[in-house]
Amino acid sequence: MAETLLLIFIAGKIGNIAQDKGRSRVGYGLLTALLWFVGEIGLGVVGYNIGGDFLSAVPFGIAGAAIGAIVSYLIVSNLSETEEHKVKYTSRYSGGYAASPAPEKKPAIDERTEDEKEEDDFAASVGLSALQDDDE
To answer: Which of 12, 17, 77, 95 is deepest in the core (most CB within 10 A)?
Structure first.
């Protein structure tokens, strides 16, 4: 049970590393599980042949699982980033890898007519509020 939880944890971490490089998270998580089980069974069989009983196969199996996880980590850590991932996360301002800055906000378009703008400017110059109604 603990071995299965450890495998899920390690496969998730290696999948996250692959995803950060623009690769398939699930694919490299499955690669981790495959190498884990191949290493565990392969070295478990070697341990059984050396010791002659199942008790001697256990430490070899655990070592094989650890070797499989390490090999999977080395494969993923040596992957290069995909070109799409580089383009998506390259900042044109810093030259490095970062999320692009937020676009600059454009000023709101002033939809008032020229007469309304002149009235507001005059009202402001004489100290009147531009919000007063002309109907009063």
So the answer is: 17
Non-local (6+) Cβ contacts of 37 within 8 A are: 65, 68
Domain count, the chain: 1
- The Cα 57–Cα 49 span in angstroms is 8
What's the longest Cα–Cα distance across the chain?
106
**pLDDT tens-digit readout, 66-105:** 999 999 999 999 988 877 766 666 555 555 555 556 666 6
| Token pair listed for 45 | 């069989």
Provide the terminal-to-terminal Cα distance of the chain, rounded to the nearest Å.
82
The answer to whether the CB of 89 falls within 8 A of the CB of 22 is no
Nearest-CA neighbor of 60 among 72, 45, 71, 74? Answer: 45
Q: Identify whether 12 is part of a domain.
A: no
A 10 A CB-CB count for 25 gives: 16
